[in-house]
Amino acid sequence: MSDTPLLKVRDLSKFYGKRIGCSNVAFDLWPGEVLAIVGESGSGKTTLLNCLSTRLMPTTGSVEYHMRDGGYRDLYHMSEAERRFLMRTDWGFVHQNPADGLRMTVSAGANVGERLMAIGNRHYGNIRGTASDWLERVEISTDRIDDQPRAFSGGMRQRLQIARNLVTGPRLVFMDEPTGGLDVSVQARLLDLVRGLVNDLGLSAIVVTHDLAVARLLSHRMMVMKDGHVIEQGLTDRVLDDPREPYTQLLVSSILQV
């Protein structure tokens, strides 16, 4: 693992009037590291994710990203065009609802190919070939390359969304409840796939989830949020096996009782 953080987050806060979205969040994310942000609904985890991915501007604080040229840039001091380019190339964002991350009226191959075209690829044969390779990697038959996502099951749509995000070789992927709404058996298959891809590609990822089993399977480190504040963080196994905060203990015990 590199000794240089990929992401440096300092004193990040988002307020909606007097209501706290997230408050004074600070951490480093390292290359190849997967960080899970967990908490109940309303804890602030999605607000934090949206601030980190620049979908939402924070009230205060900074997020610095280690660019490929070796320097750091404050994401909120970039132009809108620079942030959009980063999102199309060096980042991915996997939505809970795949329809939010796919174009539902174009083919599966075109969904994957669009990301390649965004970074300058123009050779149709190469684009289609790469799209076909990625469909195989996410366990979608290449016979479905010309089918539209609306003809796919929920699990297939989510796997297609993952292919669309990873085809450009990003270094950082944001995931918002990536297994939410899927049947348990489909969840298990998807999690195995994601874990394998993250390891194979050496990706960094920030995963928002309310499901502690997802956090344990995917993440190296975990942050627990409550009422917009990070109340506990540490190595995932340590937090889950020996939680120190009463709220975290309650979260863990509620899972064990199910």
Question: Can you describe what's shown?
Answer:
By secondary structure, the protein is an alpha/beta fold. It has a domain at 101-169. It is 38% helix and 25% strand. The protein contains nine helices and ten strands. The strands form two sheets. It has a six-stranded mixed beta sheet with strand order 6-7-8-3-9-10, with helices on both faces. A four-stranded antiparallel beta sheet has the order 2-1-4-5, with helices on one face. Strand 1 and strand 2 form a beta hairpin. Helix 4 crosses helix 5 (154-166) and helix 5 runs parallel beside helix 6 (184-201). The protein is globular. The model has no long low-confidence stretch (mean pLDDT 94).
Helical segment count: 9
**Which series of helices and strands comes N to C?**
EEEHEEHEHHHEHEHEEHH
Quick one: biggest sheet? 6 strands, mixed
Helix content: 25-40%
* Spatial ordering of strands, largest sheet: 6-7-8-3-9-10
Q: What is the terminal-to-terminal distance? A: 36 Å
Overall spatial form: globular
Kindly report the average pLDDT value.
Answer: 94
Q: Which radius of gyration do the C-alpha atoms yield?
A: 18 Å
Percent of residues in β-strands:
15-25%
Low-confidence stretches: none
Give the strand tally.
10
Q: What structural class is derived from the secondary structure elements?
A: alpha/beta
